[in-house]
Specification:
The protein is α+β, with helices and mostly antiparallel strands. It is built from 5 helices and 21 strands.
Length: 337
């Protein structure tokens, strides 16, 4: 009898042990599923955050600068640069034969003639930058670059040969922006469209190359025109006016990891320039951003209004109490961009 009881108890122990093993396996399986779930969820969060972190939206300007002229001539803003805390601009009409300084007096900003561009001929200046003590201007009409020394006020052509890159038929689809990379001694030149491109020209030799060919690819989505460039702290900033974006390209990182332009971080100013589908100007049916400036804390975007009138129903025009046909500059906070 005692032996029978002992055997029965041993069977119970065996049964309990088997149940424990099954429960343990079920627990391990459940735990594995749970861990996989959390792993997938965490990865999704990381990817989502990465995607969001690549986009910076500006919903309100610091200021909208309305540029006042001392004469009645039309001023189609096309380029902007900062030198020692002073802001300089160029315009693209034949009577705009100066590099102009803009300065604030009270609540108003005024345009002043600063440096005469003493050259004979017909030019279309679409970009402005400063490097190695000289201003650099790109001329769309002639596919040329000029230098102006502010000390001597001497103007001369920066000589280089386009070679196979320019067949002379660019017309109004040519040079639209310029940026100086002082570290590598390169001028970046933006071809606006048809097709868009960014060329590099060596300051020392004048050799031309296509450093970002894989960046732009062969597709040219609507609104992807390149309106201007600026280079700062190793980053090339690209103004894509039709998309209301400033795109950020780390030049050094691109050399080892060339990615398409639509995968790069960007700063969107659509809510300011096209608020509630209300254009800043009444008379223009196309994106008008033409000039780009990058400072430590701000992004300035110059608007070429082609003589158009400011839209009195636009939210920001109302707020700033603007009117007339003056060109404007959007002063925007970078917010970490």
């Amino acid at each position: 009898m005692t032996l029978y009881i002992i055997l029965m108890n041993l069977n119970k122990v065996k049964f309990n042990l088997l149940n424990s093993v099954v429960l343990l396996k079920n627990f391990q399986y459940s735990a594995k599923i749970t861990m996989n779930y959390y792993s997938i969820f965490f990865t999704f969060l990381v990817l989502s955050f990465h995607s969001l972190s690549a986009q910076y939206n500006c919903s309100e300007p610091i200021e909208i600068i309305s540029l006042q002229r001392t004469d009645e001539k039309r001023f189609d803003l096309s380029g902007i640069a900062e030198v020692d805390g002073k802001i300089y601009v160029v315009a693209d009409k034949e009577w705009n034969k100066y590099i102009y300084e803009i300065s604030k007096k009270g609540k108003n900003w005024f345009i002043h003639e600063a440096y005469p561009i003493k050259m004979e001929g017909d030019f279309d200046f679409e970009g402005l930058d400063f490097g190695d003590g000289e201003f650099y201007l790109c001329d769309e009409k002639n596919s040329k670059v000029f230098k102006l020394n502010p000390t001597t006020q001497k103007v001369e052509e920066f000589n280089f040969s386009w070679g196979k890159f320019n067949d002379g038929a660019w017309g109004n689809k040519g040079l639209e922006g310029i940026a100086i990379n002082p570290q590598e001694q390169i001028i970046y030149l933006a071809k606006e469209r048809g097709p868009r491109n960014i060329y590099g020209v060596a300051l020392n030799s004048g050799k031309v190359c296509e450093p970002f060919k894989m960046l732009l690819g062969n597709n040219e989505p609507p609104g992807s025109d390149i309106a201007d460039l600026k280079f700062k702290d190793g980053i090339l900033y690209i103004l894509a006016r039709g998309q209301f974006k400033v795109i950020k390209l780390d030049v050094e990182a691109y050399k080892s990891n060339p990615v398409p332009i639509n995968e790069l971080p960007y700063f969107s100013y659509r809510e300011v320039a096209f608020n509630a589908m209300q254009k800043l100007y009444l008379d223009n049916d196309f994106p008008m951003a033409e000039a780009l400036l990058i400072t430590d804390q701000e992004i300035w975007i110059g608007i070429d209004n082609n003589g158009g009138r400011l839209n009195p129903d636009n939210k920001w025009v109302k707020k700033e109490k603007l009117s007339g046909t003056q060109p404007i500059i959007l002063r925007l906070s970078r917010n970490g961009f």
